[in-house]
Amino acid sequence: MSPKQRRGEVTSDLLLDAALRVFVESGEQGLTVSAVVRTSGVSLGSLYHHFGSLDGLIGALSHRWLNRLLSELTKALQGAETARAGIAGAVGAYLHFVQEHRGPALLLHSPLADRKGMARGREFRDAQEARVSEVGLWIQLGIDSGELAPLPPPLIESLVMGPVVAVARRVLSGIDDVGLDEAARLLPEQIWRSVRA
């Protein structure tokens, strides 16, 4: 990598880190171009050069952390010897991510992310195609082996991830009626019952 490319990468990272920090500290309303530029110490021109707009910056930040989350889920699924163990691993990996990366989890579960996901869902999914394909393949293998119910893979994905996302949202919104550790202990068996063959 050339020195110029390295500087560009450092600048991009500074902007992404600053955007996350501003979002966590000030919420969606505080996430402005001027706040990101001020927090990062990077010029306005550099923000536009690297990301095109605040929307582009937010999209890149979401992609960065979604990729990391999907990577953790994929590792958990692929490291499991059975579909049941894979579900337990995926639930644990997701909730562990929420616990360890609260700021990024807040962003990924925010109304801002929901709106962007609804407006540009296909684009976001395509950007994560490799990870999404690995999860889909794991589901299809579970169906083919007779471990998972013969349902369309997107429905199995929804049955597995829906409850986990709901718990994550509750915890991130400050509702403390269920803890992440308790959910990681109880959810896998309940989810397994809904998707087993």
Compile the SSE list and pairings.
Elements: H1 3-30, H2 33-40, H3 44-51, H4 54-78, H5 83-100, H6 102-108, H7 111-119, H8 121-127, H9 129-144, H10 153-172, H11 180-195
Helix pairs in contact: 1-2, 1-3, 1-4, 1-6, 3-4, 4-5, 4-9, 5-6, 5-10, 5-11, 9-10, 10-11
Could you explain the architecture of this structure?
The chain is mainly alpha-helical and 197 residues long. Helix content is 82%, strand content 0%. It has 11 helices and no strands. The chain has helices spanning 3-30, 33-40, 44-51, 54-78, 83-100, 102-108, 111-119, 121-127, 129-144, 153-172, 180-195. It is globular. The chain starts with a helix and ends with a helix.
What is the share of helical residues?
over 70%
- Count the DSSP helices: 11
Sheet/helix structural class? mainly alpha
Q: What is the CA-atom radius of gyration, in angstroms?
A: 19 Å
| Main pleated sheet | none
Strand runs, count: 0
User: What is the H-and-E element order?
Assistant: HHHHHHHHHHH
3D shape: globular
- N-to-C span: 50 Å
Low-pLDDT residue intervals, each spanning 5 or more residues: none
Strand content: under 5%
Quaternary state of the chains: single chain
Domain HTH tetR-type: 9-69
DNA-binding region: 32-51
Organism: Streptomyces mutomycini
Protein name: TetR/AcrR family transcriptional regulator
